[in-house]
Amino acid sequence: MLADDGERQAQAGALDSAIHLPGEWLSSLIGFIGSALPGWRDDPRRPAATGETALTAQLCARLASICRHSPGWDFLQFRREEPDESDGRRAVDIAVAPSGSIIWIEGREYTEYQTLLPVECKRLPTPMAGDRDEREYLYSRFSTTGGIQRFKAGHHAASHARAAMIGYVQDGDISSWLEQLCDWVEQLEGDAVEGWSAADKLQITSHDTVGRVAALRSGHARQAGLGDIELDHVWIEM
Questions:
Q1: How far is residue 13 from each of residues 9, 16, 53, 111, 131, measured CA to CA in Å?
Q2: Could you list the mean pLDDT of each consecutive 10-residue stretch along the chain, which spans 238 residues?
Q3: What are residue 78's DSSP bridge partners?
Q4: Within a domain: 13
């Protein structure tokens, strides 16, 4: 909050104006997002929706509400369709940023004007209409709309070494989609698509079969002289 003289003040009774967090705190943040997914999906008050835009808007609203009432997370905000920091012509589906605080992670300062974690959201399967590529979670041969493709090219999160993706599994299950995506990565490598190799495969790190949600991880080399990027994936069976 701001005082009358424009000076940044600490959040009343809760947080200092600067919060120092270890780099691995981002793993806790991604875990927090994943833990919210089953309750959001199963909320009887949630309007029925299947489109990516509507689902992501709903999820962003849910996360924003939950973090305000969750001690230890109430210094965050979740924003929709935020212009990418490195390429303002492109928008990030969900941007996680500080709210009323300055956050330091490994010597880097984040204010409400900087994104802590960029998040891209994709449906599984990709709706097949027009010039959509069924592999769009990974890559599109028609455009630069592929989810991982955007990160590899530096079109999203060029100033970040870590980002996240949320997968809305609307047909099939998590295990079958992991197998399918690994097959597609092998196809991209076999077809000699520039920049793709077996190293781009996703690896599952946890799978809650009751909540029908899973965490996965992947690492990718990037173009344009950028360093590698690590992606955390959270998938939920809708």
A1: 11, 9, 37, 20, 53
A2: 38 60 95 98 97 97 95 94 80 94 94 95 92 94 91 94 98 98 98 96 98 98 94 98
A3: 96
A4: no
Q: Which one, of 226, 235, 216, lies nearest residue 195 by Cα?
A: 226
What CA–CA distance (Å, rounded) separates 114 from 108?
A: 10
Tokens of 179: 């197998």
Q: What are 151-173's pLDDT values in tens digits?
A: 999 999 999 999 999 999 999 99
Note whether residue 178 is domain-resident.
yes
Q: What is the C-alpha to C-alpha distance for residues 236 and 238, in angstroms, rounded to an integer?
A: 6
Domain housing 75: 18-237
Domain count along the chain: 1
Indicate whether 40 belongs to any domain: yes
3-state secondary structure the chain: CECCCCCECCECCCECCEEEECCCHHHHHHHHHHHHHHHHHHCCCCCCCCCHHHHHHHHHHHHHHHHHCCCCCCCEEEEEEEECCCCCCCEEEEEEEECCCEEEECCEEECCCCCCEEEEEEEECCCCCCCCCCCCCCCCCCCCCCHHHHHHHCCCCCCCCEEEEEEEECCCCHHHHHHHHHHHHHHHHHCCCCCCCHHHCCEEEEEECCCCEEEEEEEECCCCCCCCEEEEEEEEEC
